[in-house]
Amino acid sequence: MIERVMLGAPTFLIAVPQLVDPNFFRSVVLLVEHSDEGSMGIVVNRPIELEIGEFCASQDMSFNGDATQPIFQGGPVQTDRAFILHESGQEGPETETVMGDIRLSYSLESLSMLVEEPPNHLKVFLGYAGWGEGQLAEEVTTGAWLVAPADVNLIFQSNPDDVWELALHQMGIDPLQLMHSGSVH
What we know:
By secondary structure, the chain is of the alpha+beta class. Helices cover about 20% and strands about 35% of the residues. It has five helices and ten strands, in the order ββββαββββαβαβαα. Strands 1, 2, 3, 4, 5, 6, 7, 8, 9 and 10 form a ten-stranded mixed β-sheet that branches. A hairpin with a 2-residue loop joins β2 (about 30-35) and β3 (about 40-45). Mean pLDDT is about 90; it is low at about 1-5.
């Protein structure tokens, strides 16, 4: 019998090394929604070969900040849709508070408002991670994910390659000590 896993949003899901799914290998996911019907999260540490200036130009917008910031792959679901995590008081359409001053916006109208005067903390993601009813709890129970408190500093970490190891260190786990045998799908 699978025990019930207590999950809530916002929280971090940190992939164990045995999770070999290429969408989630060494990923840190900000879980933004979790209910009996399913869960939604944003992979915060997977940059892609697209800069925010290029992305905004493709949407007929101009980015009034550092246009070389990368766009991130937020997950394998709806990869043609942008999701914006930002630390600001901006409340555009389709904007939800995730935690504190961290907001998730998912409309081009919100993005166009944010790029005019970009806040210090802003990341754009294409796609999201989604789980059906009970799926995430089962994955946590079988050991695919470690669950940790969400950390704003890691969400907006300037070097995304460091986020996975930093998240583990915050949990008191040395990544080198995690077993690398077997795999979890």
